[in-house]
Amino acid sequence: MHLSSFFLAVAILPCVSAFYPYSPPVTPSGPDAKRSVFHNWLEGRVDHGDSTEPPTLTIKRTAPRDGIHPHVRNVQEADYITRKYRSRGNSGPDIDGREALVEVERSIQQGTPVKRSNNYPIVTAAQPTFTNSMAVDQDGTDFSYFSIMKFGPRGKDIYMLIDTGSASTWVMSDTCTSAVCKMHNTFGKSDSDTLNISTTPWSVAYGTGNVSGVIGKDTVAFAGLSTPLSFGLGSNISDEFRSYPIDGILGLGRPQSNSLKTPTLMESLVSQKLIKSNVFAVNLQRNSDGSSDGVVTFGDWDKSKFDGDLSWIDSVSGSDLWEIPISDVAVDNNAGKFAGKTAIIDTGTSMILLPADDATKLHSLFPGMKHNGESFELPCSSTQMIQFTLGGVTYAVPPKDYLGKATDNGYCASNIIGRQTFGTNQWLIGDTFLKNVYSVFDLDKNRIGFGKKGKAVNAQNASASSSGQSPSTSSAGPPPTHTPSAAVADKSSKSSLQ
Fold first, then answer.
1. Rounded CA gap, 377 and 361, in Å?
2. In Å, how far from its chain's centre is CA 261?
3. What parts of the sequence cross the membrane (predicted)?
4. Active-site residue flag, 163
5. 204: which of 47, 51, 109, 118 is 20 to 30 A away, CA to CA?
6. Pair 126, 457: CB distance under 8 Å
7. Cα–Cα–Cα angle for 317, 257, 205, rounded to 5 degrees
8. Which tens digit of pLDDT belongs to each residue from 461-476?
């Protein structure tokens, strides 16, 4: 949504997260369509007291399973993320997403399905070993990552997407009249006597629609912590959110990107001295590894999640995003010569988006590459590794992450899309890459640390397997049974700051 600068200045605080929601045009509505699999359950939390262990927040992953052709999905998702960043003022080329969608639909002679089921299967995870960690559940497709946070003194469960692309946080309001809100948890005066609702307008653009409302403030509890927090209360929610179980966005971007102009979550934790360092760490796990242990850790990081030491990269000077320089990107050691590019690190983006010429150049390093507008296809039998060199260290992305759904004739859609969301030298790096590293975001020193996952992941998977804590799958109906409490876990994991 594009608004005049006058209207922006006088009437609205634009809030843009890096999450790009997708929804087919028509979905079921009414009581029967309300989320059932993602029932309100939390595996428990404990009071830290004087404990030096860092608080840790569960991450959950979900994705729609709707039969959308991979090329159609790629164009739609690229369009959503482009519009959202544009509405915040980030520069880039004008893109006609509708024309691009028509072109790709014509090329595959397939339109967008008009109906899908609001059914979200869950893969339940093994119990983690790190103190104050909670198990990560997902749907098995590594699509989006979210956590349960408790809002208000009575602790209303709200499912929050983890988003390092913005520092703004918002939830769906109980005053929301949009049909989509009937399918989600909402929060308002009926849930909390301490909720303070202001008259300050707030809005965020999401592709074909937007989320708008006012700014509220209340206590939020998560990971054994409790802090007052200002957040957006969305009373008008666009239909894109019909396809996702998330009830809001948790902004973990750099504070400059917080358009609400209120203290961010991290700023609140630091000002109250609830954490010992102004950092947070993110571990995103893939289902195919056989376990699911994604977490967000506040104020510290868990050395058991990666091998060796963290490698730090300073953020790009003057950027309000988590943006770092790229040394190069190669395919099986065939250099792409991408020096001079930068990477915007965004947990709220599932794939990797880069300018069209760069995307073509990168895919040309694969034999048998096919090009379809902004989308690319690679042989499903591809074995090459994509190697990102960042801060002098190389990190590999395997085929199981860069290959998406099968298209036809032995080809799979690439999870790397040729869409310029920012400048000609800026890439948007999402979960396709981040599943392969343990990421630490240092707000005081404006840097990101990456740890390689390999032996640490294999050891944890083997431990889960030997203990019989393998993931299990559930679909609609009663929620899967968890063993309370995941927060009361083994305390043997190493803390980096102890």
1. 14
2. 22
3. none
4. yes
5. 118
6. no
7. 135
8. 555 554 444 444 433 3
Closest CA to 451 of 281, 254, 273, 329: 281
The catalytic position among 79, 139, 142, 163 is 163
Backbone angles phi, psi at 200, to 5 degrees: -75, 120
By residue count, the chain amounts to 498
Q: For residue 244, give every residue at least 6 positions away whose Cβ sits within 8 Å of its Cβ, in sequence order, or none.
A: 21, 23, 62, 64, 144
- From the candidates 346, 358, 431, 442, which is the catalytic residue? 346
Confidence (pTM): 0.74
Q: Is 346 a catalytic residue?
A: yes
- Position 206 in a domain: yes
Give a yes or no: residue 480 inside a domain: no
Two tokens, residue 296: 């967000």
Q: In DSSP terms, which residues pair with 57 in a beta bridge?
A: 296
What is the phi-psi region of residue 256: left when phi exceeds 0, alpha when psi lies from -120 to 50, beta otherwise?
alpha
State which residues form the domain around 151: 5-300
Burial 363-375 (b: 16+ CB within 10 A, else e): bebbeebbebbbb
Number of domains in the chain: 2
pLDDT band at 212 (very low <50, low <70, confident <90, very high): very high
User: Two tokens at 171?
Assistant: 């939830």
φ/ψ of residue 287, rounded to 5: -65, -35
In this prediction, residues 445-463 reach a mean pLDDT of 78
Among residues 251, 281, 300, the one where a domain terminates is: 300
